[in-house]
Amino acid sequence: MGRRGWGCRLPVSPIASTAVLYGSLALFVSILHNVFLLYYVETFVSIYKIDKLSFWVGETVFLIWNSLNDPLFGWLSDRSFLSSPQSGPQISSPEVVLKRLSALSRSGPLLALSFLAFWVSWAPPGIQFLLCLCLYDGFLTVVDLNHNALLADLALSADDRTRLNFHCSLFSALGSLSVFLSYAVWDKGDFYSFRLFCVTLAAGSALGFATVTRLLKSRFQKEARVCQDEALKLKELSIGQSSLTQEEKPVTVGQYLKQLSKHRNFMWFVSMNLVQVFHCHFNSNFFPLFLEHLLSDSISASTGSILLGISYIAPHLNNMYFLTLCQRYGAYAVIRWLFLVKLALSAAMLLAGADQVYLLCLFIASNRVFTEGTCKLLNLVITDLVDEDFVVNRRQQAASALLFGMVALVTKPGQTFAPLIGTWLLCLYTGYDIFDRSSVQDTAAALTISGQASAIVPLRQGCFYLLVFVPISCALLQLLAWSRFTLHGRRLQGVKALRQGAQHGHLLDVKAI
Predict the structure, then answer these.
(1) Which sequence ranges are marked TM in the entry (predicted)?
(2) Fold match between 1-239 and 268-513?
């Protein structure tokens, strides 16, 4: 996989088998994380009876930790790579992959263990809530950063990276089935069955991480030894050159941030991705609200649950089709098309109006599917940014995990902006306060008794305008930022060629001497 990008030969194992193993790691994360997202709040609020103050303090601390731990762990993982090819010892690509796999073999089982800590009461609810969130997110960050970094480290060509991402989407879709299985055992009155279900998921995830990382390690350990032997021989040949080359100091945090601030494509990408993260979480946060106020009178509860299920699984399945388009037209073009489709669908829904029930069902589901599908493609673009950062700053090795962490640092505030801006807009337009349900219900009852039930119609209209104007605004902002992004076409091909040449360059220099 990515044979041309490495300084020594890759393992001769088939690309497909390595891609399957790499993709299966997404399964072991997905089966846990989907259940976590659905039930952790309900568990602490309804079962452990956490108070409101403790809940918001925990969420606030979690927000800060969630934003900062990505660049922190990325820096700890990749700080040794932040130097030019001439400074410090050469680190072969198989050694980098082994380093990522070692981190996954440790953090994967710990992620499963921290997942279990949610479902058993072992401390006062406020303390347990805070500790569980921070521990779980810390291990999840390590897993995500190293797994995403492998996407850039295992392959250089767009086709190979697309194949890797394809298998991630396939296994993530399979992992989403845990959501449907969880419905059968979720019972707030009898928590035992759900706990047993979570123990089963955690055991399967931990065992899967241990097995798959061990299999992948075995594929690269032999190659790493070969690269080390080659490096020793080359060092002997080039020992006379050491006095001619001035050793450079490792890059500091300040220098790295300065380099990143000059990386124009990175800046335009995170601007676009901040809006994307906002839109993804806006859809997730307000999905139940839209169902309640736009469709509850027209569709059954089972239809609503089907729409919810589709919104979880369809993005992964749809992404596999998007990835085949990426192989043909490139990720930049496909993402641009998705922005245009989002804009067109939202404008069409606005013109159709809020009374078209079937169109509303289709739009609510497709809006989430296309938005989440775009998110799944962005990792391919980040790997291209890793290549450009490697070439422009003459890295010793690509700082993959660190760049993924810096992207997360800038874009994760979109998770907080989504509910804040959404609820503010809804309250501004309709006067509806989502946190004060009792007063709204009392007002609605009073209006109905006095024969003025039509006065609550603006709430439905406000939800409709929120549903269509948010994606229109997001699409326009993203198209503007995306039009300034230049890492595609010939420039991308040139960057990949330069990275391949740079990773072979030190061999050519020694031979020339």
Answers:
(1) 20-41, 164-186, 192-216, 266-287, 299-317, 329-352, 464-482
(2) yes
Q: How far apart are the first and last CA of the chain?
A: 31
Residue ranges per domain, the chain?
1-239, 268-513
Which residue in the block uniquely carries the two structure tokens 């899967």?
208
Percent helix, strand, coil in the chain, to 5, is 80, 0, 20
Residue 486 φ then ψ, to 5°: -110, 0
Tokens 């298998």: give the residue: 167
- The pair of structure tokens assigned to 223 is 């190659």
Structure tokens that stand for 194 in this block: 């759900």
**Assigned CATH topology for domain 268-513:** Growth Hormone; Chain: A; (1.20.1250)
What is the rounded CA–CA span in Å between residue 197 and residue 182? Answer: 8
pTM confidence score: 0.77
Q: Look up the CATH number of domain 1-239.
A: 1.20.1250.20
**Long-range contacts formed by 429-434: CB under 8 A, 24+ apart:** 429/458, 429/462, 429/465, 429/466, 430/458, 430/459, 430/461, 430/462, 432/459, 432/462, 434/289
CA 378 to mean position of chain CA atoms? 9
pLDDT digits 0-9 by tens, 273-310: 999 999 988 887 777 677 777 776 667 666 766 776 67
d(CA 383, CA 151): 7
Q: How many residues does the chain have?
A: 513
Residue with token string 């990325």: 74
Dihedral sign computed on CA atoms, order 302, 468, 436, 411: positive
Give Rg (Cα) of the chain. Answer: 25
Write the CB contacts of 511 (distance below 8 Å, at least 6 apart in sequence): none
At CA 224, angle to CA 168 and CA 242, rounded to 5?
125
Quick one: how far is CA 327 from the chain centroid? 21
State the CB neighbour count (10 A cutoff) for residue 380. Answer: 22
